[in-house]
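FAQ: What does a ligand-bound record look like?

Like this one, built around 6-O-phosphono-beta-D-fructofuranose:
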Amino acid sequence: MKEIKKIAVLTSGGDAPGMNAAIRSVVRTGLKKGYEVYGVKRGYHGLLNGELEQMNTRDVSEILQRGGTMLMTARSKEFMEEAGQQKAKEILEVFGIDALIVIGGDGSFRGALDLSRIGVPVIGIPGTIDNDVSSSDFSIGFDTAVNTALQAIDRIRETASSHERCSVIEVMGRDAGYIAMEVGIGCGAECVLIPEVAFDLEQDVCQTLLTGRNMGKHHFIVVLAEGAGSAVEMAQKIEKITGIETRATVLGYVQRGGSPTAFDRMMASLMGIMAVECISKGKFNRVIVHRDGKIKDIDLEKALAMSKTLYAGSMDAVRQLF
Ligand code: F6P
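The answer part, i.e. the structure of the complex:
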């Protein structure tokens, strides 16, 4: 096995709280193994511009508790092309990088797989608030985003209650409903609308709200995943159909910031350690995943071939609580 001397780490795709914890863990675990550790600024875009900086243990002080990514992230069209991937490989060779750790979602892992196919050893760490990484039950940032959204909705519920209104809150998640489902159940929403489960606005939403009003409810919360519609449009329709004064809130990017929760910090730290351990054992082209309550490594190609379906049964179960 080729002796490992230098490793690099980058963050890719949407940033997520906890990414800094993973970076800190990779850097310090790598240094402890005697490796030189390089941070790649601005994801694959920065890699193509040779933006690699050697890191020491002090470079990752005081970042564990900070949201965002100290390495920054950026999307790169050039890297999507074979020529860009070849250029990335050459740049890594110029710096003498023996293995690259990519912190991001499945899109970032597909780029990592392309690199592995032209001879660059890679390891993936799931980091996206969407929690839509097909091979892992959890991705870094999801738990923090859920708690951020939940705190915001608890506040919105107070004003909805004062004005006897319905509030439609749109949460992130791209095409997935993981954030919406966990937040919807957590805040006791009357309706939780996700892309994975078809719904009829009149039957499933308006009827539920009117039934609630007949039961004496004076305010209502509807949580809507961005992949299932627009809160602004839905609020207008609900008010028109039900006559209930309705307001829309798009939580947006507040869900991407904030200090990571203990869960995200712990998961990110353990995943960073495992990523470097894989490299030290010559186990390349793996994804570090959280599956069935354990953190383990699985083959990158197999990970990307997996599919993950959101279990919506919890929503049905809690419906009786509305
Ligand atoms: O993938 C994370 C995410 O926040 C999604 O939930 C959201 O739809 C998307 O990123 C927004 O992308 P951008 O930051 O490029 O606007």
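Follow-up question: can I read anything off the structure? Yes, for example: Residues 121 and 233 are 47 Å apart (CA to CA).
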